[in-house]
């Protein structure tokens, strides 16, 4: 987004860098190797020494959206590791305004010693619910941003000017209304939380086990007992693609994302019965 991805790719080229993937939870290993990143290691979350693979050569660790809002103590742990190993933090905070219940968003760049080593990514699509506009931004210290601007200038040649102006006007309006009941940043999480609660109640009423999202658009649901409730559907219980496809067909447009699409080939099929809706 806004050049952060090209910057990351440029930074991770060469055998001197190491990329750590958490349990191969996204199929990025082949792409990383294909762009020159030779050092790819997988980290099992159950490891007795979960931080043993971090070091001076670490360039990148990935964390896909899990609908969790990290508390300040968890972010302080990440911050301490970044400082201990002199690691640059690229923080995807596109869901910062979609936080539910009593949870609060804390930007890792606000923690002591982190502004100078953090690039914070934002998205108009998530901030103002305009998916498809493809307008994003990155915040960070100038000594890092100047390199990002160079990469971005040579990666993107056409800008969505009209959308950029519209996003700027939205921010100007929200700055005037910030914290007030009429603010979109106040209204959005309230409306989405009502939708989340309705979905949770509906899924529980038919025997599914949803996990209450702490933030974001998605709801993770345990469908391990799906086959026993609908035995006439094609496919076996361990074939979530087929089961979800049948539900999509019958419900005409209600679609789930199967987590097994985010697991690398050869990895353990964890989460195949936990689609996101």
Automatic annotation (TrEMBL):
> What pathway annotation does it carry?
Amino-acid degradation; L-kynurenine degradation; kynurenate from L-kynurenine: step 1/2
One Pfam annotation reads Aminotran_1_2
Cofactor section: pyridoxal 5'-phosphate
SUPFAM superfamilies from the xrefs? PLP-dependent transferases
CDD domains membership:
AAT_like (cd00609)
Enumerate the UniProt keywords alphabetically.
Aminotransferase, Pyridoxal phosphate, Transferase
Instruction: List, in alphabetical order, the Gene Ontology terms for molecular function in this entry.
Output: cysteine-S-conjugate beta-lyase activity; kynurenine-oxoglutarate transaminase activity; pyridoxal phosphate binding
Q: Which residue intervals define the domain Aminotransferase class I/classII large in the entry? A: 70-226
Q: Which reaction does it catalyse?
A: L-kynurenine + 2-oxoglutarate = kynurenate + L-glutamate + H2O; an S-substituted L-cysteine + H2O = a thiol + pyruvate + NH4(+)
Q: Which InterPro entries match?
A: Aminotransferase_I/II_large, Kynurenine-oxoglutarate_AT, PyrdxlP-dep_Trfase, PyrdxlP-dep_Trfase_major, PyrdxlP-dep_Trfase_small
- Which GO terms of the cellular component aspect does the record hold? mitochondrion
Q: Report the sequence similarity comment from the record.
A: Belongs to the class-I pyridoxal-phosphate-dependent aminotransferase family.
Record PANTHER family: FI04487P (PTHR43807), KYNURENINE--OXOGLUTARATE TRANSAMINASE 1 (PTHR43807:SF14)
Know the name of this protein? Kynurenine--oxoglutarate transaminase 1
Q: Which organism is it from?
A: Heterocephalus glaber (Naked mole rat)
